[in-house]
């Protein structure tokens, strides 16, 4: 796929440019083709994008620019994405979405424990990348909720339940709750951003739900039957009238 000189020569927006108000993302990946594809895709979807080929270049860019989010590959020559994240977390709070080709639960948990905000396994659906990015940006842009913290092990707790973000497993006490793949994917989207309202379109466009907006309502109803004491009066997975749905974490 030809990327063209316009992509590789594109510069950061100057103050006063319309693009200067867009969220600024730093993509760090040693795969040049993927960097350019991500630059084009994210630019076309409302973001300002800079790229770096490794950890050293990423640090050089961050020395002069404040970014809203980093998309970071885990496997890079020299310093890995996990190592870079651990170092950045000593002094930086930039949100990080990690890209990984490693699908094992232990590898995903290692990424979460290093301080990344979310991870996405390669190959990935571009629409899901957008959902993850928008979810992170919305989460960091809203006031923190006391009950909305994931544990260091990558878990989100609500009521008698805990959702393991590393393995996509819902537990009630010590017993796993059987979820379909679709239900687990939907619950994960909410668990990554408790307190954030998702529209039906957000969930469909980000591939949290396969199908149309009506499918979202069906999946929400099914999920509520498994997590709510009374599905007719949801305590956790609530409807926000005129907007969509939100996961509220309560003790």
In a nutshell, what does this entry contain?
This protein is of the alpha/beta class and 251 residues long.
Describe this structure in words.
With 251 residues, the chain is an alpha/beta fold. The chain has two domains: 5-141, Rossmann fold; 155-247, Winged helix-like DNA-binding domain superfamily/Winged helix DNA-binding domain (Arc Repressor Mutant, subunit A), CATH 1.10.10.10. The chain has nine helices and eleven strands. The protein has helices at residues 5-8, 32-44, 55-62, 81-88, 105-114, 126-141, 181-191, 200-205, 213-227; strands spanning 24-28, 48-52, 69-73, 96-100, 118-121, 155-158, 161-164, 169-172, 175-177, 237-240, 244-247. A five-stranded parallel beta sheet has the order 2-1-3-4-5, with helices on both faces. α7 crosses α9 (213-227). The longest helix is centred in the middle third of the chain and has 16 residues, at 126-141. 33% of the residues are buried. Mean pLDDT is 81; it is low at 1-16 and 142-153.
Write the layout of secondary structure elements.
Layout: H1 5-8, E1 24-28, H2 32-44, E2 48-52, H3 55-62, E3 69-73, H4 81-88, E4 96-100, H5 105-114, E5 118-121, H6 126-141, E6 155-158, E7 161-164, E8 169-172, E9 175-177, H7 181-191, H8 200-205, H9 213-227, E10 237-240, E11 244-247
Helix pairs in contact: 7-9
Walk across the major sheet and give the strand order: 2-1-3-4-5
Classified in CATH, the superfamily of the largest domain is: Response regulator
Q: Regarding quaternary structure, how should these chains be classified? A: single chain
Total count of helical runs of at least 4 residues:
9
Distance between the termini: 51 Å
Low-confidence stretches: 1-16, 142-153
Main beta sheet: 5 strands, parallel
Q: Please write the string of helix (H) and strand (E) elements.
A: HEHEHEHEHEHEEEEHHHEE
Q: Which secondary-structure class do the elements indicate?
A: alpha/beta
């Amino acid at each position: 796929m030809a990327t063209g000189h316009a992509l590789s020569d594109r510069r950061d927006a100057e103050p006063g440019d319309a693009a200067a108000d867009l969220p600024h993302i730093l993509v760090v990946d040693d795969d040049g083709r993927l960097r350019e594809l991500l630059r084009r895709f994210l630019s076309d979807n409302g973001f300002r994008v800079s790229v770096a080929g490794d950890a050293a270049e990423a640090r050089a860019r961050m020395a002069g620019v404040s970014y809203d989010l980093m998309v970071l590959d885990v496997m890079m020559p020299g310093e890995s994405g996990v190592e870079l994240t651990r170092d950045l977390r000593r002094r930086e709070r930039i949100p990080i979405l990690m890209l990984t080709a490693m699908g094992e639960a232990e590898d995903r948990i290692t990424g979460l424990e290093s301080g990344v905000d979310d991870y996405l396994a390669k190959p990935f659906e571009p629409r899901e990348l957008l959902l993850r990015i928008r979810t992170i940006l919305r989460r960091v842009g809203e006031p923190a909720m006391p009950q909305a913290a994931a544990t260091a092990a990558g878990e989100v707790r609500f009521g008698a339940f805990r959702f393991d973000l590393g393995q996509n497993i819902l537990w009630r006490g010590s017993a796993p709750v059987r979820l379909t793949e679709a239900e687990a994917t939907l619950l994960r989207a909410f668990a990554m951003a408790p307190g954030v309202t998702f529209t039906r379109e957000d969930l469909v466009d980000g591939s949290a739900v396969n199908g149309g907006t009506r499918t979202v309502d069906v999946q929400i109803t099914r999920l509520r039957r498994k997590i709510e004491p009374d599905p007719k009066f949801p305590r956790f997975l609530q409807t926000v009238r005129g907007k969509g749905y939100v996961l509220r974490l309560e003790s």
